[in-house]
Amino acid sequence: MLTVADAVAGFRVFDGLPRRYQDLIAGCARFVRFDAGVAIFLEGQPADRFYVLRQGRVTLEVFSPERGRIVVQTLRSGDALGWSWLFPPYRWHLDAFAREPVAAVAFDGACLRGKSHADPELGYELMGRFGQLMLARLQATRLQLLDVYAHGSR
Amino acid sequence: MAAAEPAAGPLTPRPARVLGRRRETRDSTTIWLEPIGAPWLPGQFNMLYAFGAGEVPISISGDPARPDRLVHTVRSVGLASAALCRLRRGQYAGVRGPFGSTWPLVEARGRDVLVVAGGLGLAPLRPVVYELCRHRRDYGRVALLYGARTPPDLLFTRELERWRSRIDVMVTVDSAAPGWTGDVGVVGSLLSRAAFDPAGAVAMVCGPEVMMRFALADLRELGVPEPATWISMERNMHCAVGLCGHCQLGPAFVCRDGPVFRADAVAWALRVREV
């Protein structure tokens, strides 16, 4: 049977992390499931956790009164969901909805922050990994903003 | 005795009747022409002449197994391309070609294949997808990763569904109105979801240059060597036979030595301003 520690060890975001840190992180984690259509979190709510998806699709959305739900990104198996748990005031900046039945691992933000304070090397590792994630998302967002398909013959 | 007509050279367009057309998106149209000229291979292009408007290079987007029609998908961005998009059945376009290099379907045999397309870049890659689907057993894992601006800008949507039974097809758009149930995000984000052996895979990439630059960086990061990646370049092609120099790219002419290049030969050009 797959344990949370096994699942954590297999996630891209924790690739190459010493096993002792993976185990520390797994101590703050549990398996979760969401039905299709369920809001995993909503903008403004306390961001007390993050997720790594094992199965199913999740959309990151912004709600606009004029345009309704606007999807800004789709996440899938292996993707990490949420970084607002790392930064005060620990509130979600976007909405996240399960587009289909989702299986994930949820990580308790306060638990991880506590372990990071106790062991700054773990905190450094986590910050570095989430920094990479944010950099990749920022680059992707810039590319979306460039609207590269709008001009030229391609 | 009637004098023999001189053979048309590579600089002389020959008239080809329009057999049919389909509006693909708000600005792109596929036209079927009667077959003219030599047999073609995936990746090659023709110079299409809209009479009274001008001539433009257009990649062949049809099925290599259908020699009965010459298929091009044209985006209306200028005088000549707009005139081509307006052509109706029974009218004529001028055709020169086929010209240029081809996608590495032979080199890819037995290996995993990544087909990465952005926007209208799917059109020059469609013949590759037809071939990969037709000869599926000759290749390893095959994934088509396709990104477009919005859902209405997606090309060949019915075929994308059909191809899913033969290869892994992933589609994403940069932005979508409410109601879109597919993925939103850049095409590079699909790469980490595709199943392939980075060291042994072959990648074929076509789209706007900025998109290709980002895709090449993503492929490098995932471990696909640049010599195993091919891209299709686009430049200001006029003569199409390497004479006029308009499409010169360093030591190469895109019309004659390309449009399909191994990435390590031309990736530098994607980072140079005003080349």
CATH topology of the largest domain in chain B: Rossmann fold
Mean pLDDT of chain B: 92
Shape of chain B: globular
CATH architecture of chain A: Sandwich
* Percentage of residues assigned to helices of chain A: 25-40%
Radius of gyration of chain A: 16 Å
Q: How many structural domains does the protein architecture of chain A include?
A: 1
Which CATH architecture of the largest domain in chain B?
3-Layer(aba) Sandwich
How would you explain this protein's 3D organization?
The complex is a heterodimer of chains A (154) and B (275). Chain A is of the alpha+beta class and 154 residues long. Chain A has a single domain, classed as Jelly Rolls. Chain A contains four helices and eight strands, in the order ααββββββββαα. A four-stranded antiparallel β-sheet of chain A has the order 1-8-3-6. A four-stranded antiparallel β-sheet of chain A has the order 2-7-4-5, with no helix packed on it. In chain A, helix 1 crosses helix 2 (19-26). By secondary structure, chain B is an alpha/beta fold. Chain B has two domains: 14-99, Elongation Factor Tu (Ef-tu), domain 3, CATH 2.40.30; 113-271, Rossmann fold (3-Layer(aba) Sandwich), CATH 3.40.50.80. Helices cover 18% and strands 29% of the residues of chain B. Chain B is built from six helices and 15 strands. The longest helix of chain B is centred in the C-terminal third of the chain and has 14 residues, at 209-222. The interface between A and B is medium-sized, with 28 and 36 residues.
List keywords for this structure.
heterodimer; A: 154 residues; alpha+beta; Jelly Rolls; 4-stranded antiparallel sheet; 29% strand; globular; B: 275 residues; alpha/beta; Elongation Factor Tu (Ef-tu), domain 3; Rossmann fold; 7-stranded mixed sheet; 6-stranded antiparallel sheet; 6 helices; 15 strands
